[in-house]
Amino acid sequence: MDTDASGRIHFTAMLRHFEAAEIEFMRSLALERTYLEQEMRGMQFPRVRVECNYTAFVRFDDLLRIAVSVERIGNTSYTLAFDVRVKETAVAQGRIVVVCVDLATNRSRPLPDVLRSALQNHQMGDSAKVGG
């Protein structure tokens, strides 16, 4: 874990943990990055907004548990929410907004049906948990 001089997590490091949790979340939906790339040629999914609120200190060697949930599904974007805990203590909450972009036009486009369906199915269920 990336820490600053105080031994606490550096504020940017949590975003890498969000990214790892997002990858595991997509894997849990059978939408690994390689699958998305093959099925959705000509599209990219940039993150256009990232938020993180720290509610407690995270120290070196703390084991993070990250729950990922689908907060919102729009026409061209979706929002994932992250709840980060060390043991039972909430240490951070965050969200990312991901937009589907057509590479030919460099403009947003509707989410592919396979992605929308997987996100909708998960939105009705429990959060995916990552980590100990």
Description:
- The chain is of the alpha+beta class.
- It has one domain: Roll (Thiol Ester Dehydrase, Chain A).
- The chain contains 3 helices and 8 strands, in the order ααβββββββαβ.
- The chain has helices spanning 13-28, 33-39, 113-123; strands at 43-44, 47-54, 64-73, 77-86, 89-99, 101-102, 107-108, 128-130.
- It has a 5-stranded antiparallel beta sheet with strand order 2-5-4-3-8.
- The protein is elongated and about 45 Å long.
- The two termini are 15 Å apart.
Derived from helix and strand composition plus strand pairing, the structural class reads: alpha+beta
Shape: elongated
Tell me the strand percentage band: 35-45%
CATH secondary-structure class: Alpha Beta
Q: How many H/I helical runs?
A: 3
Largest sheet: 5 strands, antiparallel
Number of domains: 1
Distance linking N and C termini: 15 Å
> What would the CATH topology be?
Thiol Ester Dehydrase, Chain A
What's the pLDDT, averaged over the residues? 87
- Percent of residues in helices: 25-40%
Radius of gyration, taken over Cα atoms and rounded to an integer in Å: 16 Å
- Give me the oligomer status: single chain
Enumerate the strands of the largest sheet in spatial order, edge to edge or round the barrel: 2-5-4-3-8
CATH architecture call: Roll
Unreliable residue runs: none
The CATH homologous superfamily is named Hotdog Thioesterase
